[in-house]
Amino acid sequence: MSQQRSLEQERARAAWGRVVEVKGRGYAGKYGQLARSAPADIQANGLGQTLSFWNAKGEAHHRALFNHVSDWVKGQIKFADADLLQWIVNTADTDGYRRATAEAIAFVIWLKRFAEAELPKEGD
């Protein structure tokens, strides 16, 4: 039997780890709410604008989601810059930006699914 994992399995595993990491923290509900809207936010506003918004807000749940998405995309795209947002602004070409956006959306869809299942909703 093959031990090779598909990219989709790797995304799911990474997303599960991030949601488990957040579960039980004081901002878990807000993180879950933000994760649930993240695919639509990236699709509607663009990856760079969405990351900029999360970064500017600076609250714990925004910072956590920013770091989770940035770390995953950086690992998949393998660019030299240390910061995903700086790479988008300064270095990324159109194809690179599209690949980063597609990878971010694929990853946050898993985050959204696990957040819906595992994290409390705001007001619970």
Intertermini distance: 43 Å
Helix percentage range: over 70%
The low-confidence parts are: none
Structural class: mainly alpha
Strand content: under 5%
Rg over CA atoms, rounded to whole Å, is: 14 Å
Number of strands: 0
Query: What oligomeric state best describes the polypeptide chains here?
Result: single chain
Q: Main sheet, how many strands, which sense, barrel?
A: none
- Rounded mean pLDDT is 93
Q: What is the 3D shape?
A: globular
Helical element count?
A: 6
H and E string: HHHHHH
Explain how this protein is built.
By secondary structure, the chain is mostly helical. Helices cover 77% and strands 0% of the residues. The protein has helices at 7-22, 28-45, 47-57, 60-77, 84-90, 94-118. Helix 3 packs antiparallel against helix 4 (60-77). It is globular. The termini are far apart. The relative contact order is 0.20. The mean pLDDT is 93.
Itemize the secondary structure elements and their pairings.
Blueprint: H1 7-22, H2 28-45, H3 47-57, H4 60-77, H5 84-90, H6 94-118
Helix pairs in contact: 1-6, 2-3, 2-4, 2-6, 3-4, 4-6
Q: What would a concise description of this structure say?
A:
The protein is an all-alpha fold and 124 residues long. The protein contains six helices and no strands. It starts with 6 loop residues before the first helix and ends in a 6-residue tail after the last helix.
Keywords:
0% strand; 77% helix
